[in-house]
Design a protein that fits this description.
84 residues; 2 helices; 5 strands; five-stranded antiparallel beta sheet; 32% strand; 26% helix; alpha+beta
């Protein structure tokens, strides 16, 4: 889920009470996705997307790739859609 914390900045959480996992920030003409961790000195930049929603989708897909969950992705579970 996307949670707008301040204007032009969102956190990505697995559920409303969950800890922030990533940050989406307005950046130039797009939205920059960064991995967020309280233990990291600098956030890990993961790309720039055309909307906050696309950045969130990219986050969940990157998690799926890391966990090697196969065809049914985290984003598919959230939206009820299956990858083709």
């Amino acid at each position: 889920m996307l949670d707008e914390t301040v204007p032009d900045r969102w956190t990505v959480r697995a559920h409303p009470d969950g800890a922030p996992e990533a940050v989406v920030e307005r950046f130039g003409g797009g939205y920059r996705l960064s991995r967020w961790s309280p233990t990291d000195d600098e956030p890990v930049r993961l790309g720039v997307y055309t909307s906050p929603e696309l950045a969130e989708t990219a986050w969940w897909r990157s998690i799926d790739r890391e966990q090697d969950q196969g065809r049914r992705t985290m984003s598919a579970r959230r939206t009820g859609l299956e990858d083709a």
